[in-house]
Amino acid sequence: MRRRTEILLSWAGNVAALGGLSLKGRACMLMNKGAVIARRADAAMLYRLARIQILLLAVLFFSAPLSAKTSDQPLPSAEQVDVYIEKGMRQLEIPGAAVALIADGKITHLKGFGDIDGSGTPVTAKTPFQLGSVSKSFAALVVLQLAEEGRLSLDDPVSKYIPYFQADDKTASDKITVRHLLSHRSGLATIDGNRHQDTTYRGDDAMERVVRELKSAHLFAMPGDRFQYSNANYIVLAQLIETVEKVPYEKVVKARIFSKLGMNNSYVQIADAATAEPAVGHTQWFGRTFERNFIAGRAMMGPGGITASAEDLAAYLIAVFENDPRIMPKALSEALARERKGGYEFGWEFDTVDERRVVFHGGLNPGFLAMVKYTPDTRKGALVLTNMSGSLEGNFIYGATDYALGLPPADISPPNVALLRLWGTLSLTVLLAMGCALSLYALIKRAPKSPRRSAVMKWLWIGVPSFFLFGLSYFLVFVVPQLSGVNLTAVRMFYPDLGLLLAVSSGIAVFWAVARAALLIAKTGMRKTGAPTI
């Protein structure tokens, strides 16, 4: 799911810095010095890899995407919006997209672009797209409907309705209310909601399983104290809906929202026979686009399970922002009307741009991107759906919706940090492979030397570099992804090229550590004292 925060994987990307900043100089130095550096490769290894981690941290904390323009933008015509979208699709190699514009409670423009898959079937306004985290507003809406009907209270503890819901600190998690979940202030961390991105399990107990697993989750803050976006909150909310309604989540959403609004090309994860042919997801592989149609398991229905056409989603936005009595509870109407500079509440994000209030939400599923945006003061909205995501996806959904609403548009090109994280991570992989090859070559060719160190120092000479390499491997596979609230599996789901590079780099580091230690021991032999002769 997406929060640009998706933000999803800037840490996994920023690991790129360590290769991209110094590969050329290091490679030239290695080639020019030849055998001399080869003999000293082991001694220099720790210093270089330490520098690499320092550079990595520096890039993490100081890198930032290019800022958007701040000048006022005139409101473009529908034709100009179409031209903008077509140009952006060509630039970023997006296979298919759909757009809808709304104004004063009416749909003013609907159009599909490109193809749903490799067969050439064109996208139309009726083509369903996976919405990713835009789905959260649907789950929140149902919860608020149930609250207005008196079937639950937003300020009740979640454990009142789901007795098995708890974190590792039961006393603290018993204070988590339904309202906390809706606003991502439960204390559940981002990582707790991203451990099941690759699940395809469709059993009736899919969400219950995940909720029970939260028993081992550690709250990063006391409930209500701090905001942290987490899919776990909306997994629990979907289970709450099923528990209260005693009906599968998919059927609840269809009955309470889709059917009432005539959203005939919308569904939760699995299509009905009567719906239009859905768009097929596409992902990037080092900048090239390939089909990858993935449908997550039922556990992810609440945070990212809705699939809808541009036409249907536009009807939903009109119903929400025009307070349609068929679906709108009073609490949501009041929340959307409230003056605020920013924040998150009830499945929606809030911002202020050029003194204009903006209500929005983005979405990311593997192979899909979505953005819905509405300006309450002008009663205008825009949504853009695409069937492509990846490491170099750029800011198309942001730029297109901003442009359509006359807001300062974001540059749709992949930002410098995105280029750095992909090609720099590739450079890291190459750097580690070169260092490993040269180091092991030097050990194979070098004749054993007479012992000139104490036994302890000799063992340290073998063990410390290998230990450092094992640490680097762990850092790449576990620490780097988790600093962005994901695991390596999630990285590979959303950004497969980055995931592969992190895994390969980690594997090279492990191989280097083991091979180096084995060669040193085998090459030099062991003295009776138990110390290697180096």
Looking at this protein, list some descriptive labels.
3-stranded antiparallel sheet, 534 residues, single chain, 7-stranded antiparallel sheet, disordered C terminus, 12 strands, disordered N terminus, alpha+beta
The number of helices is 19
Strand coverage percent = 5-15%
Give the tally of β-strands.
12
Largest β sheet strand count, sense and barrel closure: 7 strands, antiparallel
Helix percent band = 40-55%
Distance between the termini: 53 Å
Instruction: Report the average pLDDT across residues.
Output: 86
Widest β-sheet, arrangement of strands: 2-1-12-11-10-9-8
User: Which stretches are low in confidence, meaning pLDDT under 50 for 5 or more residues running?
Assistant: 1-47, 56-71, 526-534
Backbone CA Rg: 26 Å
Which structural class is indicated by helix and strand composition?
alpha+beta
Shape: globular
Give a structural overview:
The chain has 534 residues and is α+β, with helices and mostly antiparallel strands. 46% of the residues lie in helices and 13% in strands. It has helices at 10-14, 17-20, 23-33, 35-62, 78-92, 136-148, 170-173, 178-182, 206-213, 231-245, 249-261, 301-304, 310-321, 330-337, 396-404, 416-445, 455-482, 488-494, 496-524, and strands spanning 96-103, 106-114, 128-130, 266-268, 282-285, 288-291, 306-309, 343-345, 348-353, 356-365, 368-375, 380-386. The strands form three sheets. A seven-stranded antiparallel beta sheet has the order 2-1-12-11-10-9-8, sandwiched between helices. β1 (96-103) and β2 (106-114) form a beta hairpin. α5 runs antiparallel to α15 (396-404). The chain is globular, with a radius of gyration of 26 Å. Mean pLDDT is 86; it is low at 1-47, 56-71 and 526-534.
